[in-house]
Amino acid sequence: MMSAIFSGIGALKTRIDVVKTSVAVRDDDMIASALREMTDRLFDIQQASVLVQQDNLALIVQNKQSVELQTVLEKKYAQLLVAFDGAVKVSEDLHRYALYTTARGGIVMHCKNPKSPVEEAIYLCASCAGEGKKTILQLDTYLWLRCPQHGKVGSDIPDSGPNVMMF
Ligand SMILES: [Zn+2]
After folding, report:
1. N vs C: which end of the chain shows fewer Cβ within 10 Å?
2. Against a cut of 0.85, is the pTM above it?
3. C-beta separation of 137 from 150 below 8 A
4. CA 79 to CA 112: how far, in whole Å?
5. Cα 141 to ligand 1 centre (Å)
6. What are the boundaries of each domain within the chain?
């Protein structure tokens, strides 16, 4: 669009030279024709200027949208970094656990080297651990531990012994 403006200015300068020549030779028809041409070139330049202004407005809007998108992407990136750090911490913590079969045959994750009685009592869901999540199984009933996502697994509470039925 800028090239149209420069081209129009060049054509206008040529018309001005024609007007100067026409005035010098005192040719009224040539002067009138050159003035019409000058008016047409001025109109062309004005039209090109309007188009350049429209393009500039579109670029301003596009630039604003790009800045907004960049802000959104920077926030998402920061959130992903936090999530990644959390996932790394969970992964490191899960390495402290190993598969373990409870007294009732449930497959869970249990701490390899518990540092406290509380940690000794914690069982993790093996399915969740396989997905990189740390879910502490909660005692559902006397015989079962429960994962909110994967359901029940046999607890580590042993049978009290064979049930003797007396008849
Ligand atoms: Zn689970």
Report:
1. C
2. no
3. no
4. 32
5. 17
6. 2-76, 93-154
Residues with CB under 5 A from ligand 1 (ion): 125, 127-128, 135, 147, 149-150
Q: How far is the CA of 123 from the centre of ligand 1 (A)?
A: 11
Alpha-carbon span 56 to 52, nearest angstrom:
6
Ligand 1 mean position, distance from CA 143 (Å): 17
Identity of residue 143: L
Q: How many CA atoms lie within 13 A of 24 on its CB side?
A: 6
CA dihedral of 18, 23, 29, 35, whole degrees rounded to 10: 50
Judge whether residue 167 has pLDDT over 70: no
100 strand-pairing partners: 108
Residue 92 has pLDDT above 70, yes or no: yes
Burial 105-128 (b: 16+ CB within 10 A, else e): ebebbbbeeeeeeeeeebbbbbbb
* Ligand 1 centroid – CA 100 distance (Å): 15
Question: How does the average pLDDT of the chain come out, rounded?
Answer: 89
pLDDT at 8 over 90: no
Q: How large is the average pLDDT for residues 60-86? A: 97
21 C-alpha to ligand 1 centroid (Å): 94
